[in-house]
Amino acid sequence: MTETEIRLRELIAKICESPASLTESERRRLVDRLLITVQKLPGLVKSSHLDFLEALDKTYWWLSQNICQFNPPSNNSLSYEKGLTRWINGYLYRRIQDLYQQIPFSPFSLDQVINQGEEDNLTWLDQLPATPGLPTLNGLEIYIERLQKEKTQDVFLKFEFYVEQDFDKRLQNCHPRHFSNCNCQMLCQRILLQNPSEKISDISREFGVNYQTLKSHWEKKCKPLLREILVELGYCSE
Questions:
Q1: DSSP 3-state assignment of 220?
Q2: Are 67 and 34 in contact (CB under 8 A)?
Q3: Cα(17)–Cα(12) distance, rounded to whole angstroms?
Q4: pLDDT: which is higher, 23 or 127
Q5: Measured between alpha carbons, how far is 53 from 57 in angstroms, rounded to an integer?
Q6: CA distances for 189 relative to 76, 79, 181, 215, angstroms
Q7: Domain boundaries in the chain?
Q8: What does the alpha-carbon distance between residue 2 and residue 152 come to, in Å, rounded to a whole number?
């Protein structure tokens, strides 16, 4: 039995064996840990569709609501881990199919007038706020913490998934000179996403990097990059 399988069994058991004894926050924490573990399953279906993360979000939400309906494999030819992966893939595959069956979106101009004939013509662009409410650099940790605590699990998972996969290596390629291991992906995982989080001073000692060098890299390089990614994903603070 692998370490991942042991972890999956323990988490699912805690969530499902006595659900009435769990508070909402306790269940949410357990489900968050389960979904983070599930993301690392090597056999999950993937797609090159531009909206694949949308299908993935729906799947994670469905899993969080229906995990107790999972029936472990009854034969020895399929492990618990692979059985769970196959069960999840069945739903995920259907959501990917939905993406390809969607009617293409017809774009419209933000300059289009929405009150034609009135004295002061307004456009869609006029309805947008002048300055989007985006997370500030200093509030990035608070922003991520809020995402984890609120009932916006899909938001947290999309950001965590992006950081975990780092498809285009943007985070991994951003690091202090001669210290590629101290890249923004690793720092984000250990400072923001890990619970409990680690201190920059501890990480600097572990990798033999000057504290001020690592702190400066985190503040001036990683935070702006993470903020940029959040904006690209379409999120803003309230």
A1: helix
A2: yes
A3: 8
A4: 23
A5: 6
A6: 36, 29, 13, 15
A7: 3-101, 133-232
A8: 31
